[in-house]
Amino acid sequence: MVVTEPRLTLERRLLREHPLLIACDEVGRGALAGPVAVGVVAIDAARSRKRVPQGLRDSKLVPESRRAGVAERAAAWVSVSAVGWASPQEIDEIGIMRALGLAASRGLQQLSAAGFTPEEGIVVLDGNHDYITPVHGDALTVRPVIKADRDCASAAAASVIAKVARDARMIELHDAEPHYNWARNKGYASLDHREAILRHGISAHHRASWSFIGSPTLF
């Protein structure tokens, strides 16, 4: 498989028209347990001229043993980074897409608290659907970009920073509920996770409104 290295082509073009570029990418959308996280990073024109951090890729393409180091280099490369969260209870209450928007909005608020103004820039959002504007408001300029986490270095940085943060959260939760093996499966629907749900039922960290084939009575 040929692994595409992310570039800064789109970022440099957009930064000719905007003073700030913010990239967002989600992690944990398809998990059965745990929060959803949205990584948020910002770069300006000066940052976009710097070398892309070594090993930076979409988080799914970075081996787990290397992700923490890549995330650390990515955080040092961007102007500012944050991770916004939405809990399993919020996902159950408002649905996954609105929960993604809530998590992204919380990440953007962290950028504002750090002295940056997202509304002055442009937001590159991985995917084909703008889930941020319905929650955060239309003062932002949001540009969904399919495969941004693969092709755009800023979105790849947001992806790997969010992935490392969410994996760490799931490892913390594992200690209280070790039978689900979240340290290994990170809350996704692996065979060992689904078998544990069949044996033990769901926990407070599961998305109780979700279901999966083979266990219709659990949720």
Topology:
Blueprint: H1 9-14, E1 21-27, E2 36-43, H2 45-48, H3 64-77, E3 80-86, H4 88-94, H5 96-113, E4 122-126, H6 133-136, E5 142-145, H7 148-151, H8 153-174, H9 182-185, H10 191-200
Parallel strand pairs: 1-4, 4-5
Antiparallel strand pairs: 1-2, 2-3
Helix pairs in contact: 3-8, 4-5
For this entry, give a set of tags.
single chain; alpha/beta; Nucleotidyltransferase, domain 5; five-stranded mixed β-sheet; 10 helices; 14% strand; globular
Quick summary:
With 219 residues, this protein is α/β, with parallel strands linked by helices. 42% of the residues lie in helices and 14% in strands. Helix 3 crosses helix 8 (153-174) and helix 4 (88-94) packs across helix 5.
Give structural notes.
It is a single chain. With 219 residues, the chain is α/β, with parallel strands linked by helices. The protein has a single domain (9-172), classed as Nucleotidyltransferase, domain 5, CATH 3.30.420. The chain is 42% helix and 14% strand. It is built from 10 helices and 5 strands; from the N terminus they run H-E-E-H-H-E-H-H-E-H-E-H-H-H-H. Strands 3-2-1-4-5 form a 5-stranded mixed sheet. The radius of gyration is 18 Å and the shape is globular. The termini are far apart. The model is unreliable at 215-219 (pLDDT under 50).
Q: What's the CATH C level?
A: Alpha Beta
Oligomerization category of the chains in this entry: single chain
Mean pLDDT: 93
Strand arrangement, major sheet: 3-2-1-4-5
Q: Write down the overall geometry.
A: globular
State the helicity in percent bands: 40-55%
CATH topology: Nucleotidyltransferase, domain 5
Number of DSSP strand runs: 5
N-to-C series of helices and strands: HEEHHEHHEHEHHHH
Which class do the helix and strand fractions yield? Answer: alpha/beta
**Low-confidence parts:** 215-219
Strand content range: 5-15%
Number of domains: 1
CATH superfamily, called what?
Answer: Ribonuclease H-like superfamily/Ribonuclease H
First and last CA, distance: 38 Å
Gyration radius, to the nearest Å? 18 Å
Q: Major sheet, described briefly?
A: 5 strands, mixed
Give the CATH architecture.
Answer: 2-Layer Sandwich
Number of helical elements: 10
